[in-house]
Every structure is written in structure tokens, then in C-alpha cells.
Design brief:
DNA-binding, 6-stranded parallel beta sheet, alpha/beta, about 50% helix, elongated
Length: about 200
């Protein structure tokens, strides 16, 4: 079985290639464009999400899965936000693993993905299961506050000042809010929140 490792960090890529070479034939790519070019020669792709310049892991996954008889793609990343998971799955990834997984789990995931079966880290599986059980994720008190600030038309800097938090924290909360509400823009987030009676204008 042939595996393509896609990661823009040379040290990480070197470690993964060394690890997987015990069980598989391994090739490597340092960016999304290279991964698309090499994908037709392998059975499974292990794809990082953030790949520096050029297309990211999600777009590379989308292009690979659009190929005729394209290989299965498993996301292998440190990012585990709901938004990242949803984007990856929608792009066609058959699996989503975190880089802190055990070596044997990674090898098992490659074999499982090659057969067309879904592969998920336990934490990711638990989260997705929770979303199925509770399809309308609850917003935290802080997320509600940020939505109310959005409804006032405040920018991230103004929200950060109003709530005494950093702009980076505001961005993180927005990503989570967008994922929970299933939206992609600030306007859509406010509109959806109002429709669901989470906030009042």
C-alpha cells in the first residue's frame, strides 16, 4: 500500500515518513499543489490542514477527491475546531486524526481508510456524536455577548475592548459561533441568532 504524507513542516514530515515506512511505501509532499500532483499514484493521503502558501489542506482534499478514482484522504492535524472538522468532511475527507494519536492508531487508520471506512480520533468522534444527539449546540454566555456586540455592528477590536479580552480571543469565539450556527459571515450569524431567539435586536 502506498501512502502520501502532506505537511509543510520538514521535521514533522520526516518523522511521519520514518514511522509509516515500517508498514507502507511512503511518498511526501510539502504543500497542497504537490499533493494534488502526486495523489493519483497513492492509495491513501495523510493531509495536514495548514500548508503555508498556496492551497490549504481542505482545498487540496477537495481537488483530490474530485479526481477519477482519487485516493482516500485522512486529515492529520493539530487543529480540532468544529469549523475545521466540518470543512474537511465536506471536502471529502474520510477521516480526521489529531497529531497526538499513537503510532499504531495512525497505521490502523491508514489501512481502514484504504478500505473506504471512516476514521476519526476518539475526541473527534465523541464531539460529532454529541452534535448528532444535540443538533443545536448551545452557545456559551461569552458567545452570546459577542453575538450581541456583532448585532451592534462592532468590529473585533471594539468587541475586545468592550469585553476586556484580546482580539485573538474574539476571533476564536467567532469561529466557534459560526460553526455552531452553521454560518460563514457575521451578518448571517446575527440573523440566525435572532431567528433562533438567542439574541434580540
Amino acid at each position: 500500500m502506498k501512502v502520501l504524507v502532506v505537511d509543510d513542516h520538514p521535521v514533522v514530515r520526516f518523522g511521519l515518513v520514518g514511522l509509516l515506512s515500517r508498514d507502507f511505501e511512503v511518498v511526501e509532499a510539502a504543500n497542497g499543489e504537490e499533493s494534488v500532483q502526486l495523489a493519483s499514484t497513492v492509495d491513501v493521503v495523510l493531509m495536514d490542514l495548514q500548508l503555508g502558501r498556496g492551497i490549504d489542506g481542505v482545498e487540496a482534499t477537495r481537488q483530490i477527491r474530485a479526481m477519477e478514482n482519487g485516493p482516500q484522504v485522512v486529515i492529520l492535524t493539530t487543529y480540532d475546531s468544529d469549523a475545521d472538522i466540518v470543512r474537511a468532511v465536506e471536502a471529502g475527507a474520510i477521516g480526521y486524526l489529531l497529531k497526538d494519536c499513537a503510532p499504531e492508531e495512525l497505521a490502523r487508520a491508514v489501512r481502514t481508510a484504504a478500505t473506504g471506512q471512516t476514521v476519526l480520533s476518539p475526541d473527534i468522534a465523541q464531539r460529532l456524536l454529541g452534535q448528532v444527539r444535540d443538533p443545536a449546540p448551545k452557545l456559551s454566555k461569552r458567545e452570546i455577548q459577542i453575538l450581541e456586540s456583532l448585532a451592534k455592528g462592532l468590529a473585533n477590536r471594539e468587541i475586545a475592548k468592550e469585553l476586556f479580552i484580546s482580539q485573538a480571543t474574539v476571533k476564536t469565539h467567532l469561529v466557534r459561533i459560526f460553526a455552531k450556527l452553521g454560518v460563514e459571515t457575521r451578518t448571517a450569524a446575527v440573523t440566525t441568532a435572532v431567528e433562533r431567539k438567542l439574541i434580540r435586536l
